[in-house]
Amino acid sequence: MGIDLILVALVFTLLMAGYPAGITLGGVSVLVAVLASMGGAFDPALFQAIPSRVYGIMSNGILLAIPLFVFMGLVLDRSQLAADMLRATAVLGRNSPRGLAISVTIVGAVLAASTGIVGASIVTLGLIALPSLLRSGITPAQAGGTVAAVGTLGQIIPPSIVLIVLGDQMSAAWQQAQLSAGNFAPDPVTVSDLFVGAIAPGLLIAGLYVAYQWLRFPSVVESGSSIEEPARAPLSVSIIGLLSPMFLIVAVLGSVVSGLATPTEAASLGAAAALLLALLLRRLTLPLFREIVEEAAHLTSIIFLIVIGASMFSLVFRGLGGEARVEALLGGLPGGAMGAVFVVMVVIFVLGFFLEFLEITYLVVPLVAPVLLALPMADGQMMSPVWLGVLIAVNLQTSFLTPPFGVSLFYLRSVAARTITTTALYRGVAPYVLLQLIVLGLLFAFPGLATSLPKLLSAG
Amino acid sequence: MGRLITKIGRVAAWFLPAVLALQIIILVLREGFGIAIGWADDLSLALHGTCFMLVAAWTLSLNRHVRIDVLDRSLSRRWRKTLDRIGALCLLLPMMGALLVTSLPYVARSWQSLEGTAGTDGLPGLFIVKTAIPIFAVLMLIAGFMAALRKDSPPSGQMDGD
Predict the structure, then answer these.
(1) Residues in B touching A48 (Cβ below 8 Å)
(2) Which of B18, B74, B67, B69 lies closest to B46, judged by CA?
(3) Distance from chain centroid for Cα B147
């Protein structure tokens, strides 16, 4: 029995105990490494690599985009600009539950894209969109399912933080796979590539959501229910509230897709523009700005503590020879490269019930991605890192929505426990989970769904 | 000690808007005037890196770091307290201890050469940035053990600032 396996088992068991995840990862790894080095199974010289790894995380230019996007999302959220967008949808869709659900989906997709944090967008949607959906005459199950599903769209629609960390890990994995294949100057894979690759699958998912709502939700308000609230803001105000943040987010995304700006530059432009917008609409006070700054710093340190802990884990796991085991395991699966990808996807899906995207990205991806990317495909081509990254992102998003453990459902229940029962919520998200699985299947069978757009743009 | 951690965190949080301002200046100078400043990018990375390293302990003292509690989202207060004690001793101490012990010689080397960032127009004072690593380890240890020994019930860890 290898010590690397003991390490993995210990880490996953102890994470469940509920001590802060980043510290659990780092602490268990150090303890196991110390014990293993006494028995000669771990080279103690590897400990010297810890501080330079931490410094590597501190000075990683790709990850610099994270606090900036977090900041932009918080400005939109805390200055009530995001809430305004959702209230505007209630005005636009006031005569039709179907229209309301569809506009919540579209606005939610844009909004979720701006924050990229499942928890934040679900809470905002749950507090603002859910009540008007409930009043509109669709069932609580349908309303809850819609909000939970729409809240996860931010994971896949760029600029999402999931795609940034996946891009960071995927580019390292791609370098490693290419080096081991003897290519010493591979074309780099960037976060922008992943953003562009995620656009078509993301739009397909949002489109399928809308199609489902079109087919299954009633088109007119039933008697006895009304969406209209007392004291409506005038329509013109709503439209400004709806369009300006939407314009902002489309501009941010557009500048990355067109190659004009790197994700970090787009994030800083987006954050600055959101601040300007909030100032112009007189939403920003000094205490609020201070609150946003401090909250952004908290969220950033929450993210990076996990990154630091996970990097200690992967250092120790490699030091214990775990990499060779993963390689042997994945290489020996029936079905070749696609079989291996399938197995990894199932594992990631199940892990998504228990862990957050950060732990999965930093624990699993560095272990499996270099091996997967080096496996020969049936047609003799190299596996596309963009495809693999987008596949993982859609997979995680689906996992976060799937009962009974999906995080999205937990967040929604924390704000809407009284209006929607758990079983109703499960029934309501089931159709959306089915749609996600369809897209996941399509993406698996047709990698072109993710890879065509990046190819098209880089050729042109 | 708790107040010191909060104060350091509060100050370091403002590195973030500074990074934002710096990034905008870099963009405007480069796109508008064709001027590239090598050290400005290094400076924004340095601010970003030290920001989360110095804020993390404050976040820990507010009980805001992500915990995974799949089975029961509302663990009993007594279990939470026991968990925080065991965790501080068996997880936080080895992690931050290892980081502290290994980073001290690492940072000392950097101080000896008064290291700056690479490149002809690199940023001097990289050794100061690297010093954030042992400071992070010490602050985290203090915050974690203070949380473990706290008599009153810990903060709920919910989003604050409503």
Answers:
(1) 102, 106
(2) B18
(3) 17
Looking at this predicted complex, what is its ipTM? 0.91
Residue A382's nearest CA partner among A182, A150, A122 is: A182
What residues of chain B lie within 8 A of the CB of A304, using their CB?
Answer: 52-53, 56
**Which amino acid makes up residue A244?**
S
Is A349 part of the contact surface with chain B (CB cutoff 8 Å)? Answer: no
Q: CA A27 to CA A250: how far, in whole Å?
A: 42
B16·A291 Cβ contact <8 A: no
- Chain A partners within 8 Å of B118 (Cβ): none
Q: Does residue A95 sit in helix, strand or coil?
A: coil
CA dist A393 → A125, A397, A432, B67 (Å): 21, 6, 16, 22
In whole angstroms, give the CA distance from residue B110 to residue B108: 5
Instruction: Please answer yes or no on whether A23 and B87 come within 8 Å at the CB atom.
Output: yes
Q: Residue B144 and residue B147: Cα distance in Å, rounded?
A: 5
Cα–Cα distance measured from residue B57 to residue B64, given in angstroms and rounded to the nearest whole number = 10
CB-nearest to B87 from A19, A60, A294 is A19
Contact B95 A23 (CB under 8 A): yes
Cβ-based neighbour number of residue B114 at 10 Å: 11
Q: Do the Cβ atoms of B56 and A301 come within 8 Å?
A: yes
Query: Rounded to two decimals, what is the model's pTM?
Result: 0.85
Rounded to whole angstroms, the Cα distance separating A371 from A134 reads 48
Q: At what angle do helices A385-401 and A407-416 cross, to 10 degrees?
A: 40
| Nearby residues of A415 by Cβ (< 8 Å), 6 or more positions away | A122, A123, A126, A127, A130
A261: nearest Cα among A252, A273, A272, A250: A252
**Structure-derived torsion over alpha carbons of residues B46, B50, B51, B57, reported in degrees to the nearest 10:** 170
Please state, in angstroms and rounded to a whole number, the distance separating the CA atoms of residues A224 and A47: 68
CA A58 from centroid of its chain's CA atoms: 22
Residue A354 and residue B70: Cβ atoms within 8 Å?
A: yes
Cα dist from B113 to B42, B127, B129, whole Å: 18, 9, 14
| 8 A C-beta contact, residue A53 and residue A217 | no
Alpha helices by DSSP H, B34-125: 38-61, 77-87, 93-112
Q: In 10 A of CB A381, how many CB atoms?
A: 10
Q: Could you read off the pLDDT tens digit of each residue along chain B, which spans 162 residues?
A: 789 999 999 999 999 999 999 999 998 898 888 888 878 889 999 999 999 999 999 999 998 887 776 555 556 777 788 888 999 999 999 999 999 999 999 999 988 888 877 766 777 888 899 999 999 999 999 999 998 887 765 565 543 332
Residues of B in contact with A302 (CB under 8 A): 59, 64-66
**DSSP designation for A384:** P
Out of A19, A123, A301, the one facing B91 most closely (by C-beta) is A19
Residue among A335, A425, A423, A348 nearest A391 (CA): A348
User: Which of B56, B80, B102 is closest, CB to CB, to A305?
Assistant: B56
Question: How far apart are alpha carbons B142 and A271 in whole angstroms?
Answer: 34
Contact criterion met (CB < 8 Å) for B106 and A15: no
